[in-house]
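Holo prediction — iron/sulfur cluster.
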Amino acid sequence: MLEAGSALAEALPGFRPRAEQLAMAEAVAEALAERGRLVVEAGTGTGKTFAYLIPALYSGAKVIVSTGTRNLQDQLFHRDLPLVGKALGRPVRIALLKGRANYLCRHRLALELGSPELPGFERSRKRALGRIALWAEGTVAGDIAELESVPDNDPVWLAATSTRDNCLGQDCPEFRGCHVVRARREAQAADLVIVNHHLLLADMALREEGFGELLPGAEAVILDEAHQFPEVAAQFFGTRVGSRAVLGLVRDAELELTRAGLLDATVRAALAEIEALVVNLQRVLGGLGERVDWPRLPDAALEGAADLEQALAAFAARCEEPALEVPAVRQCGRRAADAGARLHEVLNADPALGLRWAESTMRAFTFEFTPFEVAERLRAQVDARPCAWIYTSATLAVGEEFAHYTRRVGAEDARTLQIASPFDFETQARLYLPSGMPDPSDRNYTEAVVEAALPLLRAAGGRAFMLFTSHRALGEGARLLRESMREDDLFPLLVQGDMPRDALLKRFRELGNAVLLGTSSFWEGVDVRGRALSLVVIDKLPFASPDDPLLKARLEGLKRAGRNGFSEHQVPQAVLALKQGVGRLIRDPRDFGVVMIADPRLRSRGYGRTFIASLPPMTRVDSVEEAADFLRHHLAMDYADSE
Ligand code: SF4
C-alpha cells in the first residue's frame, strides 16, 4: 500500500514512496500485533497519518485515533480515511465522535424555546435561536458545525447543547432521538473511531462525558499530535468550578421548576441566595486581575466560596424532597451537588498534591486545582487496558531523548523510535542566528529583532512568518515593522487579530508575498507549501510564561521530588515548541528557506546546544548576506522553474 504503483499511490495524487513512512508503518504494525506501546517521532514529510492508518485498518483491530486539534480530525475523517478505504477496496466503518458540546440537545432547545423571554435578550440571539430551531427539524447527525449561519462559538449554543452536568440521560424525554446518544452508538459500532484527547481521557477515567464504553472494546489507541496530550491531561485531572456553570444551573433550575409548576417562594429564595453569593464573589474577585494564586486570595473570597458551597449543598438536598420528584429537577439537584463537591475539593485540596488558584475577569470567575503529577494516573489507566498504545507527533524527542515525554505520560517502558524527515534540510534550509543581539529582557529587544529581520524580509520579498512569544512583542513588532518599511517594500503585513486565524492563513496563501505576524497559535498546525513561505523569523526561545498555573504546578511538583524543573521541564518544553515553530518552513521536498532565530541565548547559554541539536539539520550561516543570498538565489530559480 505504501509502495509505488499501489492502490493508495493511484488514489493519492502526488504520492511518493518513502523509506521513512515504511519504517514507521512497520513499527506501528508490530506494536498492533503485540498489543505493545510505541512512541514515535516522525519528522515533517514522513506521511505519518498513512503510516498508522494503513497498518491499523489492515490489522482488523478496533482502533481509536485521538487527535489534539479539530483540523486533524476533519482531515482524517473527510480526506485520509475515505482515501485509504477506497484503496483497500472494502468499506471501512469509521466514526468521528466529538465532545457533547458539538451536538444539538433537543431537550434544552425545547426548554429554551418554551421559556418566557428574559428582559435584555438581543434580537440577534432570537434570530440565531430561530435558525437553530429550523435546522433542528431536519438534521440527522445534529452536529452544530452543519449550521454555518450560527458559528459554533456563539454563546446561543449554550442553550441548545448539553453538558455533562445538565444532560438528563435516560430520564430525558428526548432520549430516543438524542444526537449525543446516536453519535456514541455509531462510534461503538465503527472499526475506527476518531476522538480528541479530552474525550479519550474522559473515556479512560470513566467519566460520563466520555461514557466509558469506547475503550473497553478497543484493541488499539493511536494518539496523533501526542505532544499535546500531557497538557490536556494536566487540565483534565484538575478540578474546576466557575461562576458561569453555577449561574447556568440557577437559570436551568428556574426553567425546569417553572415548567413543572414547582417554583415556590422557598425554592426561589434558595436559588436567589446562590445567585447573590456568585455576584458577591464576582465583586470580590473581579478587581484582582486574571490569575490569583491561592495565598493571595482575600478572606472575603474564601468565606464567600465556603458559603456558596453550603448554599449549593442545601439546594441539592432540597431537590431530593418528595414534592420535587421530577427527573429534570432532580438533575438540577445533582448538578448543584456536583458543583458544591468540586468547590469543596478545591477549597480543601492538599497543597502538597497540587496547585490552587482563582481566575477572574470582570464577568466571570473560576476556582481551580491542578495536580502536580498526572503521569501516575495516566499509567494506571493505560496499564488497565491491554491494547496497543501508540503515541506519535513531529515533536516528541529532545535531541534523541524521549525520556521527557515518556515520563510525563507514564509510558517509560514504551519502545521509542525517531524517524528523521525525508526532506533534505541541509540543502533546502539555512539557519541564521544574528550576532550582537541584546538580551531578550532588554527594552529594545523587539526593535533589534525587526532590524535584524528586515534585510531578509526584503530579500524574500515578504513571504515570511514572524513568530513571537508574547502578544506584547507581537503588537510592538507589528508597529515597528510598519514604521520601518520603505516605499519600495511592497509586501503586505497580516497581523494576528486582524481577522480569524484561518482567514488570515487563507489570505497569506492567496497573496503569495505577505508577512504574517503571529503568536503561539501559528507555531504549530500550519501548513503553507511553496515559496509563499520562504522565511521564518522567531523572536525568542519559547519558554512558557512563568505565570502559567499549569507550569507552576509542574515545577513545584518536580521541586518537591528533588528534581530540577528548569532542565527537566522548561528547557525540554521550549525545545519541543521551537521544533514546532521551525517546522513551519519546509513542508515539501521542493520548499526552501531560511529560519532566523534572534534569541542570543542559543549561543550564550549552555542549554542553547540542546535546542540546536534538536532542530532539523539545516546548514548554519553566520552572516545576513549569506542568508539573504540564499533566499534571492532560490527565489530566482523558483521563478525560472515556473516560467
Ligand atoms: S439525553 Fe441529554 S443530550 Fe440528549 S437530548 Fe436529553 S438532555 Fe439533551
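READOUT: The chain has a mean pLDDT of 90.
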